[in-house]
């Protein structure tokens, strides 16, 4: 297990709490599959999520924050495609 999730957030926009909540939610579903989840402060309105250094979500591209169910499915599809997400899969 060497999967790494990075959540790059704008500290000037006060998105630390959002990034921390996302980290907690992701770890609750992928504690066996992820070796690291890192909130990383940035600036300029950034909010990006990278899995193994590959961009999987960008606020500037999507023009919205990710829905947690949507994000969990994106992560699952890349690191644990056979894993059930329970009610999130519905």
Characterize the structure shown.
The chain is of the alpha+beta class. A four-stranded mixed β-sheet has the order 2-1-3-4. The chain has a single domain, classed as Glutaredoxin (3-Layer(aba) Sandwich). Helix 1 (16-30) crosses helix 3 (68-79). The protein contains three helices and four strands. The relative contact order is 0.23. The chain has helices spanning 16-30, 59-62, 68-79, and strands spanning 3-10, 34-42, 47-51, 54-58.
CATH architecture: 3-Layer(aba) Sandwich
**Regarding CATH, which class?**
Alpha Beta
Q: Pick out the low-confidence regions.
A: none
Order of helices and strands: EHEEEHH
* Number of beta strands: 4
Residue share in β-strands = 25-35%
How do you describe this structure in short?
This protein is α+β, with helices and mostly antiparallel strands and 90 residues long.
Secondary structure layout:
Layout: E1 3-10, H1 16-30, E2 34-42, E3 47-51, E4 54-58, H2 59-62, H3 68-79
Parallel strand pairs: 1-2
Antiparallel strand pairs: 1-3, 3-4
Helix pairs in contact: 1-3
What keyword list fits this structure?
90 residues; alpha+beta; Glutaredoxin; four-stranded mixed sheet; 3 helices; 34% helix
């Amino acid at each position: 297990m060497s999967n790494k999730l990075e959540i790059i957030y704008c500290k000037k926009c006060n998105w630390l709490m959002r990034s921390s909540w996302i980290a907690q939610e992701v770890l609750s579903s992928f504690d066996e599959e992820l070796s690291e989840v890192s909130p990383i402060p940035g600036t300029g309105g950034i909010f990006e999520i990278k899995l193994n250094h590959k961009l999987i979500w960008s606020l500037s591209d999507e023009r919205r924050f990710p829905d947690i169910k949507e994000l969990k499915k994106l992560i699952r599809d890349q690191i644990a495609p056979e894993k059930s997400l329970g009610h999130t899969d519905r």
